Amino acid sequence: MTRRLLIVEDDPGLQSQMRWCFSDDLEVTVASDRESALTALRRAEPDVVTLDLGLPPDPGGATEGFSLLEEILRLSPGTKVIVVTGREDKENAVKAIGMGACDFYQKPLDADILSFVVNRAFRLAELERENEYLAIQRSGTNVKGIVAASPQMLGICRTLEKVAPTDVTTLITGETGTGKELLARAIHDLSHRADKPFAAINCAAIPENLLESELFGFEKGSFTGATHTKKGKIESANGGTLFLDEIGDMPMALQAKLLRFLQERMVDRVGSVQPIPVDVRVVCATHRDVRALIEAGDFREDLYYRISEITLDVPPVRERDGDALVIAQSLLKSLGKQMDRPNLAFSEEAANAINGYGWPGNVREMINKVKRATIMADGKRVTAEDLELVNGQTSDQIQLNLRQVRETAERQAIVQALRACNFNIAQTSRLLGVTRPTLYNLTDKYRINTSPETSGT
Ligand SMILES: Nc1ncnc2c1ncn2[C@@H]1O[C@H](COP(=O)(O)OP(=O)(O)OP(=O)(O)O)[C@@H](O)[C@H]1O
């Protein structure tokens, strides 16, 4: 890989000496003031910058140099900056190191020593990059049952690992089949409540008139048919975790009762006047837009704040960079084993189809398709047809319009090019034949993460 150095120096004599010193081994760019230095930083993306603190309009002081140092580190925190100071200028050198410069060098210029300092900075930059790369390689999730490779899901798993040991009430949002229940169980399994019950109830699946007694329980004789006293889900989760799935569908009248429970941690069984204390951690999930429900008057705002002390927004599979194929492969392996068809593998065309398809039903849909393919595959190769995915579409699903087709393809091409270029923006834009600003506009538009770091979304 070419090592790129930016020399920021206003003295033409020193500029040429330094250029002479490095241009055999390095790709060198020279800038003589703040503005041209920032342009060069953006264009050349140097790994190392030597920065003379005394720049115009303050060549005798260091104010301009310090402002530039700050800006370089803000724009490109991984860049190693070596500040170049006057002979007696230790104070500014120390201040620059405190601000984040990686090293300093005092004039007058000695080619050997400066080369040594610059090489050391390059080595440091390379080690940091390697380290980041290795961290990504082994950053598969530790969360049981969750298969993920995308920065988006790995970020969610890391948040989950931090949230799980606490008792905060957590709201998990996301489209159907994205793994909300799986994440709720993982929160329970990673908490100190793991050996206590995990009780789940789907608020949308139970008729409104039964939901209250299901949740809160009832006393014998409290209504026709109540022939015995029964604990509700909340009580049965005592000591453990209560998972309220599809909380967005909870009727208004029950929302008030649930809010009271969350505030007081006491359960009022239907027909009882004796509240019962219950110790549960509550995790909720919904595929609905709760903010819109609040605006429409269908969800209590005060309840929303109670249940969303922490929110995990699970992205759909189509927005996770790299997850579709990784999950499909893991499913093929486990379903193949279960169905006595081990060693099945996707053909290249099937893998492309998996990556190109929009997966509106997310992982649940993927399970169905992979199960079907496991049954249908003729030899060891699973084809796109076995998956009922032809040209990245299911046969019965047509994309909305040409714009949608174009956008899906564009997004996919950008993600692939970024990976192929190791997330180097300059290389990626060259590969795609667009300018860097155009690439940035596109990555913003499609909300594509442009760094290999596994930042969450
Ligand atoms: N990242 C993943 N890795 C492996 N399996 C997954 C993953 N995400 C989801 N699944 C599986 O997909 C299926 C659907 O997941 P889950 O029921 O948790 O989704 P959900 O978001 O709660 O769906 P719904 O909103 O429809 O209730 C489950 O069988 C689950 O085990």
TrEMBL record:
Coiled coil: none annotated. The modification 4-aspartylphosphate is found at D52. Residues 4-122 form the Response regulatory domain. InterPro entries: AAA+_ATPase, AAA_lid_NorR, CheY-like_superfamily, Homeodomain-like_sf, HTH_Fis, P-loop_NTPase, PEP-CTERM_resp_reg, Sig_transdc_resp-reg_receiver. Residues 146-375 form the Sigma-54 factor interaction domain. Keywords: ATP-binding, Nucleotide-binding, Phosphoprotein, Transcription, Transcription regulation. It comes from the Bacteria. PANTHER family: ALGINATE BIOSYNTHESIS TRANSCRIPTIONAL REGULATORY PROTEIN ALGB (PTHR32071:SF113), TRANSCRIPTIONAL REGULATORY PROTEIN (PTHR32071). This is PEP-CTERM-box response regulator transcription factor. It comes from Marinobacter suaedae.
